[in-house]
Amino acid sequence: MDELSQLETERLILRPLTLEDTDFVFRHFSDPVVARYLLDEEPPTRRDQAEELIRFYMDPIGKAYNRWGIVWKATDALVGTCGFHWWNRQHFRAQIGYDLGQAHWGQGVMAEALRAMLCYGFEEMGLNRVDALVHPENRRSIGLLEKLGFQREGLLREYYNRAGEFFDHMLLSLLRGEWGR
Ligand SMILES: CC(C)(COP(=O)(O)OP(=O)(O)OC[C@H]1O[C@@H](n2cnc3c(N)ncnc32)[C@H](O)[C@@H]1OP(=O)(O)O)[C@@H](O)C(=O)NCCC(=O)NCCS
């Protein structure tokens, strides 16, 4: 990942996370409503785990992932995060991840953030394909992706494990040639 640019939309600023965001990151990812379908990572139970998560995302140069904090301009407060994982430069693809505090759901906030992020992915990172993996019951997230033009490709069976239980995940993707149509 190269130096992470700040992105701006009508209502939002997407900026790199810093250690000053630790309280928000802890509160946000330990909220069971936000974490319900985020099976990649266990929700933090201690503040230092949130700090560790932020350190992981700091200085993304040369790495295959990044993360922006999503700032609600009206209050200058963080309301969520989003970013790319598994950037494969040889094959021009990466996977997206995103999460928003419940108070802001259903107002098109994440669609606004992802449009800016996808534009960055296709234009600055040179991606040809963006993957998304979603819990099949996360209808809000699937609706969001389909609104942005992502297509369903199939079901990955028993793809994640949490607390001894396996969960299927749906694979969706958006190609550069479909973007902006
Ligand atoms: C998924 C998430 C980011 C959606 O954010 P959001 O800002 O509410 O999304 P948007 O308002 O931009 O779009 C949601 C779209 O989903 C659809 N939708 C909303 N509620 C829905 C529901 N109950 N059932 C089905 N579709 C629904 C609609 O198409 C809506 O688009 P609209 O604006 O045209 O109505 C948010 O719910 C979240 O952070 N959840 C917790 C973390 C998470 O699950 N992340 C994704 C992991 S894959």
Question: Would you kindly provide a written description of the structure presented here, covering whatever features stand out?
Answer:
This protein has one domain (7-178): 3-Layer(aba) Sandwich (Aminopeptidase). 26% of the residues lie in helices and 34% in strands. It has helices at residues 22-29, 32-35, 47-57, 109-123, 139-147; strands spanning 7-8, 12-16, 68-72, 77-88, 93-100, 129-134, 151-162, 165-175. It has an eight-stranded mixed sheet with strand order 1-2-3-4-5-6-8-7, sandwiched between helices. Helix 1 (22-29) crosses helix 3. It is globular and about 40 Å long.
Give start-end ranges of low-pLDDT stretches: none
Q: How many domains make up the 3D coordinates?
A: 1
Radius of gyration: 16 Å
State the fourth-level CATH superfamily. Answer: Gcn5-related N-acetyltransferase (GNAT)
- N- and C-termini, Cα separation: 27 Å
How would you state the average pLDDT, rounded?
A: 95
Taken as a percent bin, the fraction of beta residues is 25-35%
Indicate the overall shape: globular
Number of strands: 8
Helices, by number, come to 5
For the biggest sheet, the summary is:
8 strands, mixed
- Helix fraction bin: 25-40%
What is the C-level CATH assignment? Alpha Beta
Helix/strand order:
EEHHHEEEHEHEE
CATH fold group:
Aminopeptidase
Would you tell me the structural class of the helices and strands?
alpha+beta
Write out key terms for the chains shown.
single chain, 181 residues, alpha+beta, Aminopeptidase, eight-stranded mixed beta sheet, 5 helices, 26% helix, 34% strand, binds coenzyme A
